[in-house]
Structures are given as C-alpha cells and as structure tokens.
C-alpha cells in the first residue's frame, strides 16, 4: 500500500522529519525549485500538511490540495493558517498547546524580572569591571505591583500564578469575563493599562488582535508602566511603542517577539530600560521535542482513523 502523502511547508526539527518520513511520503515545499510545479504534480494526492505558525497554510495553498484532510501546526500560534477557509473545506487544523505553556510563562516572568531588577545591565556591570568602582544602583521590585494580562488562556493563567507567588496583584482583559477566575476583569483594554504596572501580552496573533495594543493603550500604560510581550509582534503597534520608549513615556519593555522577525527596531538597542530576546518563549529542548512529537502524533492519529489530539476549536 502506498504511504499517505504529506506536504511539509517549512523545515522542522530532525526528529520530526525523521518520524514523518517513516510513516508518510513527505514532499518538502521549501526545497522545490518550482513550488507551483510541485503542487501541480502532487497536489491531488496530498492529504495532510505539516507546518508551523509562521509558515502557515494559506487558502491558496489549501486550494491546490483538493483532497486535503488535516493540517498539523508546530506551535500554539496558528495565525499563519487560514483557519476559516480550512473550516469551510472540512479540513482539521491542529496545534501544540499545553506542552509549551510553562516555558512561555517562565519567559514572561523572566522579562518582568529582567526589566524591573535590570538583570542584563547588572550582568554587564560585573563583566565590565564596574563593580570594582562601587555598587550597582538600586532597582525596583515586582511585589506590590499589578500585572495586567491580555489574554487569560493557558499561558495567561500560568503567568498569573507566577505573578501571585511574587506578591503581585493580577488583572486581565479578554473577549469575555471568566467568572471562575479570582482576578479583576477589565472590559476595556486601555482602562486596564491605565490601572496596571505591567501589561503582559499573552493573546493569540492574527487579524483580530492586529495592533490591539495601540498607541492609545500604550499611552494609558504610561510612564509608570512596562510592556511585556511573549505573544506575537503583530499584537503591538511597534512604531508607537518605540516612539514612546524613546520619549521616556513608558517605563520599560520586555520583548520576546517583534513585528518583522528577526528584524528588531535598532532604536531599541541603546535603551537600558528594555530587555530583548530572540523569540525563545518555548525554546527549551524538552518543550520543542514535545511540540514536535505532537505534530507527528496528530497526523498519525488522524490517518489511523482516530480523533486528533489537539484540534484548533
């Protein structure tokens, strides 16, 4: 019996590619000299897609695969996939939630701590021999301040738990109030930004949240406030963020994601009140392996006639 044919849109971790090669006939789109020619040749036989949140799967790509049944996405974010189009075509979309929750929440907390206690600056102070000339200036504490979380999903709740342990108060904004949660809900994002010290962005990317944290929200956060973003760069109006930081109208920022990765606004490089990371929220060996395993397991389950493990609902 011929193996089920898959289209892999972008390279994945070696163990994922090896596992898929064992169970399926995999066509590597990024290796094709002529992508359209490849799709014309194999499109009618391809039943599954393996991709990631950035490479995604457009409606145009799906249309070239008339027998497509399932899309397995490496990552909790699936904004690069046209989920609505997939739904109209009866195509199942899966992602890799849960397995990365704790790692991403750790990075959010590290960014909060890094900005308020100036961890990167303290490190440089020691390395440059400046401690020999005197102690480092006093910094701030997290305890006693308020974290406002944009998006109280799995990751948002994990961030909230960490904030509480550190003695912070927690508020949140989302599409709806979660009455089973003990935190203060704000229906208006700018109103929450005005009331908190740290605005932590933990919502999905995509058209619905594009520039949701806009100039109005950032100005409400103001000089007493710090922006933490571990979600998607698209959620924040980056030009306004940079301008307000340069003008001293925001206290600081901790950023793991950017609008045009891996390009980062160079104006941020010289700012001592900003901590910058290269999108490493889920980038531990253990978590990335678990994410890769889930990509494979979802595809294997579907083509074995079983329910997928983590459907996007």
Structural class: alpha/beta
Helix and strand sequence:
EHEHEHEHEHHEHEEHEHEHEEH
**How would a crystallographer describe the biggest sheet?**
7 strands, parallel
The gyration radius over C-alpha positions equals 22 Å
Contiguous runs where pLDDT drops below 50 for at least 5 residues: none
Query: What's the number of extended β-strand segments?
Result: 12
How is this structure best described in words?
The chain is an alpha/beta fold and 313 residues long. Helices cover 35% and strands 16% of the residues. Strand 4, helix 4 (83-88) and strand 5 (92-94) form a beta-alpha-beta unit. The longest helix is centred in the last third of the chain and has 19 residues, at 285-303. The radius of gyration is 22 Å and the shape is elongated. The two termini are 33 Å apart. The model has no long low-confidence stretch (mean pLDDT 96).
């Amino acid at each position: 019996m011929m193996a089920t044919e898959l289209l892999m849109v972008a390279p994945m971790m070696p163990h994922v590619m090896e596992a898929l090669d064992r169970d399926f006939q995999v066509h590597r789109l990024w290796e094709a000299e002529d992508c359209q020619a490849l799709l014309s040749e194999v499109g009618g036989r391809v039943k599954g897609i393996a991709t990631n949140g950035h490479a995604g799967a457009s409606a145009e790509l799906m249309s070239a695969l008339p027998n497509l049944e399932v899309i397995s996405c490496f990552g909790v974010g699936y904004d690069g996939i046209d989920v609505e189009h997939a739904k109209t075509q009866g195509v199942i979309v899966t992602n890799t939630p849960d397995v990365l929750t704790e790692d991403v929440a750790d990075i959010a907390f590290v960014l909060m701590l890094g900005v308020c206690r100036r961890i990167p600056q303290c490190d440089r102070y020691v390395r440059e021999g400046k401690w020999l000339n005197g102690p480092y200036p006093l910094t701030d504490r997290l305890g006693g301040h308020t974290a406002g979380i944009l998006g109280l999903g799995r990751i948002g709740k994990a961030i909230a738990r960490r904030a509480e342990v550190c003695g912070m108060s927690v508020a949140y904004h989302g599409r709806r109030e979660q009455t089973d949660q003990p935190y203060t809900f704000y229906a208006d994002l700018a109103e929450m930004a005005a009331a908190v010290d740290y605005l932590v962005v933990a919502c999905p990317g995509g058209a619905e949240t594009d520039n949701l944290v806009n100039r109005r929200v950032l100005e409400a956060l103001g000089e007493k406030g710090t922006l933490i973003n571990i979600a998607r760069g698209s959620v924040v109006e980056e030009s306004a963020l940079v301008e307000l930081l340069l003008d001293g109208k925001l206290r600081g920022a901790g950023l793991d994601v950017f609008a045009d990765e891996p390009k980062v606004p160079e104006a941020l490089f010289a700012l001592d009140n900003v901590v910058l990371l290269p999108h490493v929220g889920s980038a531990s060996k253990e978590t990335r392996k678990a994410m890769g395993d889930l990509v494979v397991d979802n595809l294997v389950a579907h083509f074995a006639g079983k329910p997928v493990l983590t459907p996007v609902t």
